[in-house]
Amino acid sequence: ALDARGPAETLERANRVLVGDNRSGMFVTLFYAVLDPQTGALCYARAGHNPPLWVRGAQRQVQPLCPPGVILGVTEDVGIVEESITLAPRDALVMYTDGVTDAVDDGDREFGEERLEALLMDRCGAPAEDLVADIHRAVDEFVGDREQFDDFTLLVVTRE
Hints:
Layout: H1 7-20, E1 30-35, E2 41-47, E3 53-56, E4 61-64, E5 83-86, E6 92-96, H2 98-101, H3 112-122, H4 128-143, E7 154-158
Antiparallel strand pairs: 1-2, 2-5, 3-4, 3-6, 6-7
């Protein structure tokens, strides 16, 4: 990634390495992006990972970023597509693992993408730290005392 290749080419190269010698059966899902903090330009590609959510503060919209691309390490043709957006002031990019949306309550209901998107709609324009705290609190309240078995990883980037 440090040799100025774009996200799609970088993921394609990583996949060739994994597929080329994958006796252990390793695979990976991921979202890879390059952000220009001065302009807000974000170039990105996805390899089977949950679509990050673009929270558009001024428009009060939440838009999943869903370029095609399958998990790395399984097949030679992963169909990675690179796309780009521009984060405006007050926009956020919310990246998360499926442990956030797959968290279940005592009735075996999942927290789900709809709840996550609704929470983000209500908090458009909030600072990154507040969004992280709000998502953690909402998931914790939703699951109650139910033990969870998946990782819960969350990264929020905002443009001021």
